[in-house]
Amino acid sequence: MNAEIIAVGSELLLGQIANTNAQFLSQQLAMLGINVYFHTVVGDNAGRLEQAVKTAQTRANLIIFTGGLGPTKDDLTKETIARLLDRRLMIDEEALRAIEAYFARTNRPMTENNKKQALVLEGSTVLKNEHGMAPGMALVAEGITYMLLPGPPKEMRPMFTKYGSVFLRRTFSLSERIESRVLRFFGIGESALETAIADLIDAQSNPTIAPLAGDGEVTLRLTAKHQDEAEAKRLLDEVEAAILARVGRYCYGYNDETLFMKTLERLKEKGWTIASAESLTGGLFLEQLTAVPGASQVVQGGVVCYTNGVKEQVLGVPRPLLEAEGAVSEPCARLLAENVRAMCDADIGISFTGVAGPDPLEGHPPGTVYIGIAVRGRNATVHRLTLSGTRDAIRIRTAKYGCFFLLEMLAADC
Amino acid sequence: MNAEIIAVGSELLLGQIANTNAQFLSQQLAMLGINVYFHTVVGDNAGRLEQAVKTAQTRANLIIFTGGLGPTKDDLTKETIARLLDRRLMIDEEALRAIEAYFARTNRPMTENNKKQALVLEGSTVLKNEHGMAPGMALVAEGITYMLLPGPPKEMRPMFTKYGSVFLRRTFSLSERIESRVLRFFGIGESALETAIADLIDAQSNPTIAPLAGDGEVTLRLTAKHQDEAEAKRLLDEVEAAILARVGRYCYGYNDETLFMKTLERLKEKGWTIASAESLTGGLFLEQLTAVPGASQVVQGGVVCYTNGVKEQVLGVPRPLLEAEGAVSEPCARLLAENVRAMCDADIGISFTGVAGPDPLEGHPPGTVYIGIAVRGRNATVHRLTLSGTRDAIRIRTAKYGCFFLLEMLAADC
């Protein structure tokens, strides 16, 4: 069994976006044990799309399409496949109702071309779109399985993981289990991590160990193949234990977990609330924390104190301290954490003050950062960091270090 | 003239990386006026690579390869093309000296397989690698131009812009100018925008008009071709004026500009400062605004008032108001905007209160949002929105609507 992924959209051929859909689907198919032999990108052009489909039919028995399911004249995927397979397009009543409801809910008039989105290939299994309007579909014709998914990643990804992969498991009676687990690390560099477990990586066969670095984090993907699910899991447990025995201190979670999710989870377990005072991060820490559903049990709120005026007037940092020590200083971070905690009546106050760049501030180079943590009834602690990278990289890594220090403190506190 | 980009590498088919090389080259080729009709990705497999090249030979007269030029057994691109075109591979002395110098400089012994990187196709133009070891190459055979570039973006990009594009300009005697401009819209849906300018899109030939939707925004890419650069720009101006005459109200900027950049720019021009009170957005608005360098001239700070306690104690919303009207209400939004403005001593206060979901709040469904805007010395205004989508989509669109309403107000104020 082998697959080809065909992305349809002139915006890809113009380089406006990268084909991240093919990357996502390739990862998902690898986990299902399906080989991907080709990716193709073709524009919104019926003739060339037809040509791409015909080529794929000669070399793949699973063809997954992304894009071209929308309401405009440019959207040609369904129509082209209908013609090639000699199938009719029919209105899917459930999809049509969902589209109508979407327009009613957003108080906008539904234009006629939007009905086209409810058309599906005759005899296909409809894949529900829970994050947009155009439904997906899947069908088997003359030994080849076709799956049509929408182009926007926010619609395509949940549709595939919830409905598309179930269709493939059933259609191909997939039995060999591919179990995969991602270990997530923060506070350790990629080469330091690889050096620490070099012998384990060299000895790998099943499970395999694949490191990947990005956004200041390092992940290790462990993948085991076995007929028996429990045995595959046991193989993963074994190699995970060997890795964590060496670098467990830096491992904060699994798979799609984020430092912000873990921080929220640990605070919730402890029954503690939090407030933040953010200077260089400009609200990024709290924004990331409140992006997690259920944040309201833990997050009280906070102050973005971008100017010294707000640090002084809203958060009560005395002007003499700001003048003598500077805003980028240990005592300022300490006071910001203590005062925001008290002001928002939270159990923990955390503060971020420093230089995001591109210019130096108060004589400190970009990347100079102080993070203060104040716990109700205890003395505040302050961590000093020297980070490198762009303005964006410094901001996000600062916020992540906030989580890292909080998790360390909460772990020591148990 | 039309091109196909073939990326070679199993890591792409496993989804370990996205094919950003194809995106980069597509942008570069568009600027040279070369149409890209297909992208293909194929693994490190001689048979399938050969098949991909043969398919490309039937439909493209420029084939650009990325990847597969390295020292390992997996690197097959040169060898496969040499076989297909019946050309020999020969050592390029300059490349060999560069590789030897690289190993000498890094104090590492040069293994025998590294010599392979200095092999180039007989009769090809060598493209120097100034950021790595494997040289690129280009040649014309039987009416088709082949260009082989290394896989690592850090090597490929400078090689293409410095040497590859020069080769193409010379080979294809490129003189036609391609001018491109992106118009960015917010507050109007993709199909409403397309309906409003359907006749312009239908009549398009030069310039072309290509719509794209994403993250609650719609963009139109206008592309004009002409021998004369000034005339190409005039064609763009003409179609832009026709579009803006109909939907100009929703157009906020060009190319890579964001709503946050424009908001910051307009505020800076006006000499106004801003503060925000954020409930459902949790700091997202200010975080996005402070992500733009130079934000400190405009942003005072703000309060993230996630709980009613913070709304009451920090921002002075009276408890009786919260109890009678709720936090998700017009009067609460108004008071939050007014009070955060006063508290941070800013010219503008903006507030965001509403329901991000997934659960309803105070009886309101997710997507119910109030945005308050208070200007020093004026009565505050409040906008009510009904948004749909995921928690993340609602939060980011709320913050963007904040910019949209601010820009509208600032434009009316001029």
TrEMBL record, chains A, B:
Family annotation (SUPFAM superfamilies): CinA-like, Molybdenum cofactor biosynthesis proteins
Pfam families in the record: CinA, CinA_KH, MoCF_biosynth
Domain MoaB/Mog: 4-170
Gene3D superfamilies listed in its UniProt record: 3.30.70.2860, CinA-like, MoaB/Mog-like domain
Source taxon at top rank: Bacteria
NCBIfam families in the cross-refs: cinA_nterm, molyb_syn, PncC_domain, PRK00549.1
Family of this protein: Belongs to the CinA family.
PANTHER family: NICOTINAMIDE-NUCLEOTIDE AMIDOHYDROLASE PNCC, NMN AMIDOHYDROLASE-LIKE PROTEIN YFAY
Official protein name in the record: Putative competence-damage inducible protein
Biological source species: Geobacillus proteiniphilus
